[in-house]
Amino acid sequence: MPKIETLRKYPPLGSLFRRVTETYKSPEGAKLTRDMNLIIPIYAIHHDPDIYEDPETFNPDRFEPEEVRQRHRCSFLPFGDGPRNCIGLRFGLLQTKIGLVALLSRFVFEASSTTPRSIRFARKSFTLTPDGGLWLNKVCSLTAEGIKMQLPLGSNSKCNHQVCFK
Questions:
Q1: Which of 14, 28, 124, 159 gets the most CB atoms within 10 Å of its CB?
Q2: Together in a domain, 9 and 84
Q3: What are the protein's GO molecular function terms (predicted)?
Q4: Residue 149 Cα distances to 64, 99, 107, 141, 144, angstroms
Q5: Do residues 63 and 111 share a domain?
Q6: What CA–CA distance (Å, rounded) separates 10 from 23?
C-alpha cells in the first residue's frame, strides 16, 4: 500500500485530457456537449481534503479495503480510469516493484543533505517530476546466508555514495 499512497501523492501526470463523446447532463445540472475538451485535475483530486483527510500526510492506511470502499471509484486516478486508462498501468506497476526490490534488497538508503524537505515539480516536464531530482545517500549492505547486515559507513568510505533519481 505504500506504493499506492505514493501514486496518490505524486501521480505520474497532474491532469488528464479527454474529449466528450456524447452530450451528457450531470445530476447537478452541468452540461457536457459532444466534442467538448475536458481537463481532469488528478493532482487536485488526490489532494482534496474532502476526499482524503490531511492529504499532505503520507498514510498508506488510506488504501485499506474498508477505506477504499467509502470513496468514489474515481477519487484515485494515477493511471486514469475506464476503457481509455493508461495502457502502461500494469507494466509501470511491475517495473516499479522490480526496481524497488532490486535496489532495496542490495542497499540501504538515507536522506541526503541535498534531499528537499518538500518537493517542487519541474515546470518544463510533461510528467510530475521533482525539480532537481531526489537525492539519497546509498549505504552499502551485505547479505550473508540470507541475513542482511547493514554496515553504517562514514562519508570517507568508498562504499558510501550519493545517488540522484530523476
A1: 14
A2: yes
A3: heme binding; iron ion binding; monooxygenase activity; oxidoreductase activity, acting on paired donors, with incorporation or reduction of molecular oxygen
A4: 32, 21, 10, 6, 8
A5: no
A6: 32
Residue 71 belongs to domain spanning: 2-88
Q: What is the tens place of the pLDDT at every residue in 12-25? A: 999 999 999 999 99
**Three-state SS at 83:** helix
- For residue 4, which phi and psi values (nearest 5 degrees)? -70, -40
Contact 78, 8 (CB under 8 A): yes
Structural contact between residues 16 and 77, judged by C-beta atoms closer than 8 angstroms: yes
pTM above 0.90, yes or no: no
Task: Report helix, strand or coil for 67.
Answer: helix
Per the listing, cell 532490486 goes with: 102
Torsion sign over Cα 92, 93, 94, 100: positive
Q: Domains in the chain: how many in total?
A: 2
Q: Given this model, what pLDDT does residue 133 score?
A: 83
Does residue 86 have a known ligand-binding role?
yes
Reference 120, options 111, 128, 133, 130; nearest CA is 130
Amino acid at 12: P
Q: In the numeric block, which cell numbers belong to residue 89?
A: 498501468
